[in-house]
Amino acid sequence: MPYIIIALIIGLIGAIAFFYNPIIKLISEKKARPFIDNEIFSEGEFTRQEVLKSIHQITNHKYYDENVLDYFYKIKGNQIINMKKPVDFWVRTYLSSPTKIKLSYFEQIDFYKLFLNEYSAFNDSFNCVDANKDTEMKKEGLLVG
Questions:
Q1: pTM metric for this prediction
Q2: Distance CA 92, CA 107 (A)
Q3: pLDDT per residue over 26-50, tens digit each?
Q4: Alpha-carbon distance 46 to 29, whole Å?
């Protein structure tokens, strides 16, 4: 009888260890995405559909909308949300997890050009480079465009 109890306890601990990481990823995504969505699309400058359309143009419609938004949320979320200010554990866990898709080198370059350089003059909702810094960086040769 004691061996059965020990075997059940070991089995329970093994099951928890095996399913811990996927469960944490699902919970963090469910709790963090609404917060990040409100932070990124709070101004209404860019709607979700415009962002999806522009990323799909970069990737030639290779990925599903959910995976593209996951990539966008994690890249822009890490830029927008100051990690020194207190944020929820679930938001930090979600932003520090790997993206669901991996863009090629050229797709990444196009992505960063589009969302960092090209729209930087009116990109205050994304807290990117402001217009004055953009022109200064162009003069110094640090910014392509």
A1: 0.68
A2: 26
A3: 999 999 998 888 888 876 656 788 8
A4: 22
